[in-house]
Automatic annotation (TrEMBL):
<dbReference type="InterPro" id="IPR023267">
    <property type="entry name" value="RCMT"/>
</dbReference>
<feature type="binding site">
    <location>
        <begin position="264"/>
        <end position="270"/>
    </location>
    <ligand>
        <name>S-adenosyl-L-methionine</name>
    </ligand>
</feature>
<keyword id="KW-0694">RNA-binding</keyword>
<dbReference type="GO" id="GO:0008173">
    <property type="term" value="F:RNA methyltransferase activity"/>
</dbReference>
<dbReference type="InterPro" id="IPR006027">
    <property type="entry name" value="NusB_RsmB_TIM44"/>
</dbReference>
<feature type="active site" description="Nucleophile">
    <location>
        <position position="386"/>
    </location>
</feature>
<dbReference type="GO" id="GO:0003723">
    <property type="term" value="F:RNA binding"/>
</dbReference>
<feature type="binding site">
    <location>
        <position position="315"/>
    </location>
    <ligand>
        <name>S-adenosyl-L-methionine</name>
    </ligand>
</feature>
<dbReference type="InterPro" id="IPR049560">
    <property type="entry name" value="MeTrfase_RsmB-F_NOP2_cat"/>
</dbReference>
<keyword id="KW-0489">Methyltransferase</keyword>
<keyword id="KW-0949">S-adenosyl-L-methionine</keyword>
<dbReference type="GO" id="GO:0001510">
    <property type="term" value="P:RNA methylation"/>
</dbReference>
<comment type="similarity">
    <text>Belongs to the class I-like SAM-binding methyltransferase superfamily. RsmB/NOP family.</text>
</comment>
<dbReference type="InterPro" id="IPR029063">
    <property type="entry name" value="SAM-dependent_MTases_sf"/>
</dbReference>
<feature type="binding site">
    <location>
        <position position="333"/>
    </location>
    <ligand>
        <name>S-adenosyl-L-methionine</name>
    </ligand>
</feature>
<feature type="binding site">
    <location>
        <position position="289"/>
    </location>
    <ligand>
        <name>S-adenosyl-L-methionine</name>
    </ligand>
</feature>
<feature type="domain" description="SAM-dependent MTase RsmB/NOP-type">
    <location>
        <begin position="152"/>
        <end position="453"/>
    </location>
</feature>
């Protein structure tokens, strides 16, 4: 038998670490690839194997349970990971069957018993006896309703399909659900921001972004090859995140001397853009992040500015007590489930649960209320989440409106974005802006501007 290819070994190691020790594939894989000094082609293969397997694991689990004749929770977890990795090769990549099966059996030997290797061999031989389309048909036949059908076909947990459907339905666009979850399975291109006053879009060797006036999209390659990125004058940042920061900084003309606060700043992407915008307009930014290690990342992101903005390490829910009515503009980029960024975090969809939404929504409300208290009369804030889940977005804003009554007012956020971008965002009539991967090519950012009465 042949030795296991390093690309498969690395992919399995990362997949095991994601499950066993909650590792993040997008952080661990680059480290493993660098250590193994793989060729570009092998590194590409390892990346496809890792990300593809993690993304499509829900679908592969349905196939595996049919082929094995038992539910996947009755299979040893490490052996199940080997089977998932093999499924990705057999059902989604054009890998020769014998290579996929033989090397998976070898991998099974390294993580399980001898009987486990016989089991892996048997299940994979069963899978190779039917075509890709036949497996899809069999897997979809287990769905009991439309949501389960989509969940299997596009490999998402059913509760996320339901949450997305509800968020789209709120815009009268429930029929776009399949497009949305399909878009979640395509890794986005690298998007860059040229920090105003520090870098220009033209100097980045990239295409100008569709919507962000300070954004550019790389066709491929390593962004660190660019001097502007290496020196922190430009950064990797999703276009939706750029629009969220710009919605606040460009919502109205900046009056020199304004004080701005980024309440939940780690790791510092939006803080860097806000700091650049503030510096151009004569305002000053304070960035706050409660987790010290993440506050350190914020300091690094802001080190390019002279003087660098101050970084606080406060629990943001207390800012209304200690800094009441101090700030002219506040960004609340709230901690959230991140359901709007599933494209870039292949394992994230399997890690989250409705319990996370319940836990986070309490914190989100507290942060928004604290920020309103810290806002000067006449000031403006942006409540932002990288999740389109209604309980993390619209419902949080509605709760604040109920609590604060006429002391605050929703600002027409699509209208503000319309003044920032030259391309049509095609947002439905509403005071908030919900961006979508399938419509805008951005993460699914929710943005609501709110002003405080004088
Ligand atoms: C969505 S992330 C912010 C991303 C950031 N704005 C960027 O663009 O790079 C939310 C951040 O809020 C922080 N956070 C969570 N609870 C917080 C709290 N009570 N006060 C302040 N920050 C908090 C998290 O540690 C996390 O870094």
């Amino acid at each position: 038998m042949s030795a296991v290819q390093p690309a498969r070994r690395i992919a399995l190691d990362v997949i095991l670490a994601v499950r066993e020790s909650d590792a993040y594939a997008n952080l661990l894989l680059p480290v493993r690839l660098q250590r193994a000094k793989l060729s570009e082609a092998d590194a590409g293969l390892a990346t496809e194997l890792t990300y593809g397997t993690l993304r499509r694991q829900g679908y592969y689990d349905v196939v595996i349970s049919i082929a094995a004749g038992r539910p996947v929770d009755k299979i040893d977890p490490a052996i199940l990971d080997v089977l998932r990795l093999a499924c990705h090769q057999l059902l989604s990549m054009r890998v020769a069957q014998h290579a996929a099966v033989d090397e998976s059996v070898q991998l099974a030997k390294t993580v399980g018993s001898n009987s486990a290797t016989g089991f892996v061999n048997g299940v994979l031989r069963t899978i190779t006896r039917s075509t890709v389309d036949e497996w899809q048909e069999r897997a979809l036949a287990t769905a009991k309703n439309d949501d389960e059908h989509l969940a299997i076909l596009h490999s998402h947990p059913v509760w996320i399909i339901r949450a997305f459907r509800a968020a789209l339905a709120a815009e009268g666009r429930a029929d776009e659900i399949a497009d949305l979850v399909e878009a979640d399975n395509v890794a986005p291109r690298v998007s860059l921001v040229a920090l105003p006053g520090n870098a220009t879009v033209e100097e980045l060797d990239a295409y100008a972004s569709t919507f962000s006036p300070v954004g550019a999209t790389l066709d491929g390659g390593d962004p660190l090859q660019l001097e502007a990125v290496r020196t922190g004058r430009a950064r990797v940042q999703d276009e939706g995140s750029q629009l969220a920061a710009l919605a606040l900084s460009r919502s109205r003309p900046i009056v020199a001397g304004e004080r701005w606060l980024d309440l939940c700043a780690g790791p510092g992407g939006k803080a860097a853009l806000l700091a650049a915008e503030a510096a151009v307009g004569g305002a000053t930014l304070v960035a706050n992040e409660v987790v010290p290690a993440r506050a350190e990342l914020v300091r690094k992101a802001l080190a390019v500015f002279e003087p660098a903005p101050v970084v606080w390490e406060l629990d943001g829910t207390t800012v209304g007590d200690d800094h009441a009515e101090e700030f002219d503009r506040i960004l609340i980029d709230a901690p959230c489930t991140g359901l709007g960024a599933l494209r870039r975090r292949p394992e994230a969809r399997w890690r989250k649960s409705p319990r996370d939404v319940a836990h986070l929504s309490g914190l989100q409300s507290n942060l928004l209320n604290a920020a309103i208290a810290a806002l000067k009369p006449g000031g403006i804030l942006a409540y932002v989440t990288c999740s389109p889940h209604l309980a993390e977005s619209k419902v949080i804003v509605e709760g604040a409106i109920k609590k604060w009554g006429s002391a605050i007012e929703r600002v027409d956020t699509p209208a503000v974005l319309g003044t920032i971008t030259e391309s049509q965002l095609d947002l439905p009539e509403s005071l908030h802006a919900q961006l979508w991967p399938h419509r805008h090519g951005t993460d699914a950012m929710f943005i609501q501007l709110i002003s405080k009465a004088e």
